[in-house]
Amino acid sequence: MDVVLKTEIPELKLIGRGKVRDIYDLGNYLLIVTTDRISAFDVILPNGIPYKGYVLTQLSKFWFEKTSHIVKNHLITTDIEEMPEICKKYRNILEGRSMLVEKAKPYPVECVVRGYITGSGWKDYQKTGEVCGIKLPKNLKESQKLEPPLFTPATKAEIGEHDENISFEQMVLMVGQKTAEKLRDYAIKIYTYCAKIAEEKGIIIADTKMEFGNKDGEIILIDELLTPDSSRFWFKEKYKVGEPQESMDKQFVRNYLETLDWDKKAPGPELPKEIIEQTSKRYLEIMEILTK
């Protein structure tokens, strides 16, 4: 599979090019094409990761189907044969990495659920005893399981900007009390349900972020779901409380970038061949474990 960094479909109207996805307007629907672009610290890096777009699409499809009993989602199909005729002309770039989806108005928040204390949450806790303004028990250890999982919303950043954690009260001001409560409850239910499925396959989902939209007055799940770009995956058999964990997700790239003298502003640095290969291997492995 060729690495796809950018798509060009002249017959279709391009309405968005995000950090990873190219979005085309098909009238009543959207065509979301997941490229092999990778971003870290909200900067798009020059290199693509082989098979990344394929993995993100297949994993999202898997989880959308698994969670449709909890909340509806925007996925119509990932099958080129079921898409408009124009898509078949571009089969070589769309196959396996594209989704035909319902249109919805996105809510302006990321719905983050943390099942374990790690990453920025762990750093915050060490400084303040809190995570995103939520007071936690004393003497928690790094990577410790949080009971119950925490819901910590964030604003959605533009390319080159950083997501910002916000309080639930701030989220209420943005979307309203009733909607905020529904989004929180859906996010926690999805995380809890999927974390159980993953754990039975030997994978811990440490945390994840989700996006929701409004379609005809109804909340639906949109974008991607429980991929290595939106979640932290750890091996259950290697898990040890009190230390950082080996990560089967984008954290592997972030860890490498942290060793560089880089100010985390665009342009991003080139990734070495071995980092690209290892990242691709991790993405494929987590997909195979979870979807088998």
From TrEMBL:
Name the GO terms of the biological process aspect: 'de novo' IMP biosynthetic process
Task: Please indicate which superkingdom the organism of origin belongs to.
Answer: Bacteria
Q: Which reaction does it catalyse?
A: 5-amino-1-(5-phospho-D-ribosyl)imidazole-4-carboxylate + L-aspartate + ATP = (2S)-2-[5-amino-1-(5-phospho-beta-D-ribosyl)imidazole-4-carboxamido]succinate + ADP + phosphate + 2 H(+)
> The SAICAR synthetase/ADE2 N-terminal domain covers which part of the protein?
15-266
Enzyme Commission number, as recorded: 6.3.2.6
Q: Name one Pfam family in it.
A: SAICAR_synt
GO CC aspect terms:
cytoplasm
Q: Spell out the coiled coil positions from the record.
A: none
Its pathway is:
Purine metabolism; IMP biosynthesis via de novo pathway; 5-amino-1-(5-phospho-D-ribosyl)imidazole-4-carboxamide from 5-amino-1-(5-phospho-D-ribosyl)imidazole-4-carboxylate: step 1/2
Molecular functions (GO terms): ATP binding; phosphoribosylaminoimidazolesuccinocarboxamide synthase activity
UniProt keyword terms in alphabetical order: ATP-binding, Ligase, Nucleotide-binding, Purine biosynthesis
Cite the SUPFAM superfamilies for this sequence: SAICAR synthase-like
InterPro entries for this protein = SAICAR_synt/ADE2_N, SAICAR_synth, SAICAR_synthetase_CS
Keyword Transferase carried by entry = no
Q: Which family does it belong to?
A: Belongs to the SAICAR synthetase family.
What this protein is called in its record is Phosphoribosylaminoimidazole-succinocarboxamide synthase
Q: Please give the organism.
A: Deferribacter desulfuricans (strain DSM 14783 / JCM 11476 / NBRC 101012 / SSM1)
